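Reading is simple: each integer encodes one residue's backbone shape. The lines below illustrate:
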Amino acid sequence: MPERATPERDASRNALVALLVVYAGGRMLQVFPTQVPTLLIVLLHVLPPAVFAFIHGRRVFGTRGIVVFMVLSLAVGGFFESLSLRSGFPFGHDYFTGVMGPRVFQLPILLAFAWVGVGLFGLGGGVADHWGGGKVVQGADRFAVDRGGGDVGVGSGDGSGVGQH
């Protein structure tokens, strides 16, 4: 049985849809790394999913539950990214250029926040598709990849700060 609509639910639904659209726009902007500030592209890749995770997670798990989840995501994601930077395990020997913003121990702070959004989508097993975002994100990603957009901020060796995988 569907939940009743309330002004708060409508507002959060609208915010979630807007965040998906902003994220998709950020995915498409990575095709233009010389015309658009790279830090803006990185912010649009990281912040909308993290805010989406908080809003949606609060609805599903409650405020306390999503805050615990976010803290764990930041801690675990940050730990494994830092381990990888030092040892190559588990993600390989990447390095991050300065375009991803400030760093703590060579790890961009924004990268740690990316794990919040990634973690919720992994935990939810279809959160984005429930909101119709799966198709939006896949389409934006396909647009960027087809036009040569790579991973922003991961070193590629050419000095651009845009890595190709």
In short: The chain has five helices and four strands. Residues 7-148 form one domain. The two ends are 44 Å apart (CA to CA). Residues 135 and 153 are 25 Å apart (CA to CA).
